[in-house]
């Protein structure tokens, strides 16, 4: 089976690389499978090296659209040491233009997207919401327009994605009494923190429905009313400690909850 694995690494959205890859792969109709993984908003060497190690393990080609010269050098050094295959789309042409004009490049990620800022802001916000969904990386909190907090089944992810489609950068974190809060939360202004809460009985119904859809036993602790009441009480304590704006979600649509959050932003 002829297949190719490609990792797209970008300090912006990565759409530039995606378009070129699509054009190139169209020249290889006999390739049966193309596995493409996109890694947007890569701005630190630490994150870059994790991705490069994964690419090496998967024998993937790395396609980079990085404008930061330190990240580009880190990629080149890694490739030199390990034999990783990579293509740097930005640097060669950047150097040629710099040589012709004598001007220094800005090294500003996403500068191209100013051509259609509204569209690309929305794309970037959606990528951001996916990357920082469900507390995957608390480091994203500082770059968020809003950080949504709530126990399981309080609409954190649907609300994050809806707001992302309106170009807001949103991260979210599930609240679990046994799991300590990430320290990054302490540095987030309270006006950016949104607490989502619901009545325990309503959350129980939603969780039971979720378990049934997965073919799982509805008698688990996840769908225990006393446990849910404990989680709700804990979330209220967290919201008060952080000064969060609290929204009761079980009587509101996603659109209504989003409108409330947007009003908070305008205050």
UniProtKB/TrEMBL annotation:
<dbReference type="GO" id="GO:0016776">
    <property type="term" value="F:phosphotransferase activity, phosphate group as acceptor"/>
</dbReference>
<keyword id="KW-0808">Transferase</keyword>
<keyword id="KW-0547">Nucleotide-binding</keyword>
<dbReference type="Pfam" id="PF03618">
    <property type="entry name" value="Kinase-PPPase"/>
</dbReference>
<keyword id="KW-0723">Serine/threonine-protein kinase</keyword>
<dbReference type="InterPro" id="IPR005177">
    <property type="entry name" value="Kinase-pyrophosphorylase"/>
</dbReference>
<dbReference type="GO" id="GO:0043531">
    <property type="term" value="F:ADP binding"/>
</dbReference>
<feature type="binding site">
    <location>
        <begin position="150"/>
        <end position="157"/>
    </location>
    <ligand>
        <name>ADP</name>
    </ligand>
</feature>
<keyword id="KW-0418">Kinase</keyword>
<dbReference type="GO" id="GO:0004674">
    <property type="term" value="F:protein serine/threonine kinase activity"/>
</dbReference>
<dbReference type="GO" id="GO:0005524">
    <property type="term" value="F:ATP binding"/>
</dbReference>
<dbReference type="InterPro" id="IPR026565">
    <property type="entry name" value="PPDK_reg"/>
</dbReference>
<protein>
    <recommendedName>
        <fullName>Putative pyruvate, phosphate dikinase regulatory protein</fullName>
        <ecNumber>2.7.11.32</ecNumber>
        <ecNumber>2.7.4.27</ecNumber>
    </recommendedName>
</protein>
<comment type="similarity">
    <text>Belongs to the pyruvate, phosphate/water dikinase regulatory protein family. PDRP subfamily.</text>
</comment>
<comment type="function">
    <text>Bifunctional serine/threonine kinase and phosphorylase involved in the regulation of the pyruvate, phosphate dikinase (PPDK) by catalyzing its phosphorylation/dephosphorylation.</text>
</comment>
